[in-house]
Write a structure and sequence with these properties.
CATH class of the largest domain in chain B: Alpha Beta
Number of strands of chain B: 21
Mean pLDDT of chain A: 90
CATH class of the domain at 76-198 and 225-260 in chain A: Mainly Alpha
Number of helices of chain B: 9
Low-confidence stretches of chain A: none
Distance between the termini of chain A: 49 Å
Strand order of the largest sheet of chain B: 6-7-8-3-9-10
CATH superfamily of the domain at 76-198 and 225-260 in chain A: MetI-like
Radius of gyration of chain A: 27 Å
Shape of chain A: flat
Order of helices and strands of chain A: HEEHHHHHHHHHHHH
CATH topology of the domain at 76-198 and 225-260 in chain A: MetI-like fold
Strand order of the largest sheet of chain A: 1-2
Helix content of chain A: 55-70%
Structural class of chain B: alpha+beta
Structural class of chain A: mainly alpha
Radius of gyration of chain B: 25 Å
Distance between the termini of chain B: 50 Å
Helix content of chain B: 10-25%
Oligomer: heterodimer
Number of strands of chain A: 2
Largest sheet of chain B: 6 strands, mixed
Strand content of chain A: under 5%
Mean pLDDT of chain B: 90
Chain lengths: 308, 367
């Protein structure tokens, strides 16, 4: 066999080739997802905004009132109380949840059969529905038939049975503990995936460099799990801002309407007082607040050019 | 600025006494005893899974010793934390923190030790100047080439002013050309710093070119310790003889004959002088390096030994020829310059008995 050069044999310019295009068939693939987003998010969102510009009773014809529903919020003490309480709850529960989840993730990030067992145990409450967990907690907190109050008395922590749900502080912390118990496993999994993606070399290099456990956590671990942490934070904050079930089922907004959250307020306005237009306006405001908060969190936690 | 000006350098030897390491039921290091003199460049070499990286990690304190002692200088460091051993380590992956700049990476150890910022900056700048990293101090590791990352990893180690440097396959992620360049840099670093360096590699070329002393490991045991030339010329066993040198030593099954001769593939060739020669009829293995044959073009082979050419590798400055001798025994030859045999050519070979290495059936050298 012989091989010869063809460079002088063919002087014709090479045939230009068009780059391949994805074409319209790509759209077909995303169409189902687009349809779902349109039907279940965009259309309801548009309807909510439309309703918020009306006086929209349950029965009877809606009446266009422009921005009057939004204007009304300024003077609605119930709205401000709900927003204040929601913000307070969000801060407390986010700190508690992410703190506990981080601790659990650090404990169960290594491999092993026993570790897998603990991971499962910590994750189990996540698969319980919020309503079921709330009913369980309501029963556990019951002053007569529950467990917490008799247990506290038996252990000598109190001299008589205390109704945990009758006072704001104990009621608030009771619900917060329930939410942390129920949701910590979920955030543990997110943070654990981040921890497991950090090469062990970094930890070892830092150990040789003499960094303490806390220094390694602060200077190496936390910056390297920035993205999963941001995801956990956004999910946690938005989830807390939308809290409703637990306060409705366990506390029914009490004591003295002190635990009415933003969504609870929307529920009351829309489905108790049947002011659907005003309820829609509250929903739109809550959505805007959530979008702004999420954008701020993602900006603050954005990975600034750290190349792997 | 010269390297030795960075900090007040001192160095220490390393002594390993009867070191064992097990992971569960698997014993990966078995009774390792070794003395590394202060300022020595020692290379642990061996095939994958031989335990060389584990041995380095035991010295670093990244793994716990199952039994035995590790001394750095006169201090027993077996139970000490890695940071208290006076060591610095360069990892195979460099282990540079991706979110920190080059300067922050290099100064990380000093920052963790709570040193003042001006002192950290001074030491980082000095090391960066020596390693030609001054222009890259503000960059992130992801913005550097492989060679630059390697230099940052070395710089991070230098800034810590260690007694002992540990390298865990530091060049294996680099391309061939860069590997040669970095090898020279590490050799220069050792010459100028004079610090004890322990280097792990599976590449025997790196081991031969860098080491004052090579430790050859196999299956968790030390096979031989010695200077590169000693291991090449005077291996203790077939494993070392075959592992050190490229292309590898040729091994042929042979038998001790009468009258101080060895029977090899139908030929009878004079045996080397042995202090304890095996009895006639004893099976043995004859080892010959590819460059230690004489290619006879002026007549028939003196002992009737011929080589049939299968194919030839031309490498520019040298050529290797692969083929068979005797009754089809695989053999590699290094060819003299200008000699280009063709496939199926038959070459007459001459052998100098001083170049033969004789091994018994268990693979141990017969001297």
């Amino acid at each position: 066999m012989t091989v010869t050069s063809t460079s002088t044999a063919d002087h014709a310019p090479p045939t230009p080739r068009k780059p391949r295009r994805a074409g319209w068939h790509g759209l077909v693939y995303v169409l189902p997802a687009l349809a779902l987003v349109a039907v279940f998010f965009l259309v309801p969102l548009g309807m909510t905004v439309w309703m918020s510009l009306h006086d929209w009773p349950l029965l009877g014809n809606p009446r266009w009132i422009g921005l009057a529903n939004y204007d009304r919020m300024w003077g609605d003490a119930g709205f401000w109380n709900a927003m204040r309480f929601t913000a307070h709850y969000t801060v407390v529960v986010t700190i508690g949840l992410l703190g506990v989840a981080m601790g659990l993730a650090l404990m169960v990030q290594s491999q092993g059969r026993a570790i897998a067992f603990y991971r499962t145990i910590y994750f189990l409450p996540v698969v319980t529905g919020f309503a079921s967990a709330s009913l369980l907690w309501a029963w556990l907190s019951n002053v007569d038939a529950g467990l917490f109050s008799p247990a506290a008395q038996m252990l000598g922590m109190t001299d008589r049975r205390v109704n945990l749900l009758a006072h704001f502080d104990t009621a608030f912390w009771s619900v917060t503990v329930m939410v942390v118990w129920k949701m910590a496993g979920f955030y543990m999994v997110i943070l654990m995936s981040g921890l497991q993606s950090i090469p062990s070399d970094y930890e070892e290099a830092a150990r040789i460099d003499g960094a303490s456990w806390f220094q390694r956590f602060r200077w190496i671990t936390m910056p390297l799990i920035r993205q999963p942490f941001a995801l956990a934070l956004v999910l946690c904050v938005s989830g807390s801002m939308l809290a409703f079930d637990q306060f409705y089922i366990i506390l029914n907004g009490g004591p003295r309407n002190q635990t009415v959250t933003a969504v609870y307020k929307i529920f009351n306005e829309s489905f108790v007082s049947f002011r659907l237009g005003y309820g829609s306006a509250l929903s739109v405001v809550l959505l805007v607040i959530l979008m702004v908060l999420s954008a701020i969190q993602l900006c603050l936690l954005r990975d600034k050019g750290a190349a792997k | 600025m010269a390297l030795q000006d960075i900090g007040n350098r001192q160095t220490a030897g390393v002594t390993l006494r009867r070191l064992h390491k097990s992971f569960g039921a698997v014993e990966v290091l078995k009774d390792i005893s070794l003395t590394i003199e202060p300022g020595e460049f020692v290379v642990f070499v061996g095939p994958s899974g031989c335990g060389k990286s584990t041995l380095l990690r035991l010295i670093a304190g990244l793994e716990e010793v199952s039994a035995g002692d590790v001394f750095i200088g006169d201090t027993d460091v077996t139970e000490k934390d890695p940071s208290d051993r006076g060591i610095a380590m360069v990892f195979q992956t460099y282990a540079l923190y991706p979110h920190l700049s080059v300067a922050q990476n290099m100064g990380f150890g000093l920052k963790a030790a709570g040193r003042p910022k001006p002192e950290i900056a001074q030491k980082v700048n000095d090391a960066a100047a020596v390693l030609q990293l001054t222009d890259y101090l503000d960059r992130k590791p992801g913005q550097l080439s492989g060679g630059q990352r390697q230099r940052v990893a070395i710089g991070r180690a230098i800034v810590r002013n260690p007694d002992v440097f540990l390298f865990d396959e530091p060049l294996s992620n680099l391309d061939a050309e860069l590997r040669v360049g970095m090898r020279l840099e590490i050799a220069r670093l050792h010459r100028e710093l004079g610090i004890t360096m322990i280097y792990v590699t599976h590449d025997q070329t790196e081991a031969m070119t860098l080491a004052d002393k090579i430790v050859v490991l196999r299956a968790g045991r030390v096979e031989q310790v010695g200077a590169p030339a000693d291991l090449y010329e005077d291996p203790d066993n077939m494993f070392v003889a075959g592992f050190i040198g490229s292309p590898a030593m040729n091994f042929f099954p042979a038998m001790m004959g009468n009258g101080g001769q060895i029977e090899l593939g139908g030929s009878r060739i004079p045996a080397p002088v042995l202090s304890n020669p095996p009895a006639p009829g004893t099976p043995l293995t004859l080892g010959l390096r590819p460059e230690r044959y004489q290619i006879r073009t002026d007549g028939p082979a003196p002992h009737g030994l011929t080589f049939q050419v299968e194919f030839t590798e031309y490498l520019g400055s040298s050529s290797y020829c692969y083929g068979t001798i005797g009754d089809g025994l695989a053999c590699t030859l290094e060819l003299p310059n200008g000699f280009r045999p063709r496939r199926h050519d038959v070459i007459s070979l001459g052998l100098d008995s001083q170049n033969m290495r004789i091994f018994d059936q268990s693979g141990l050298r017969i001297r």
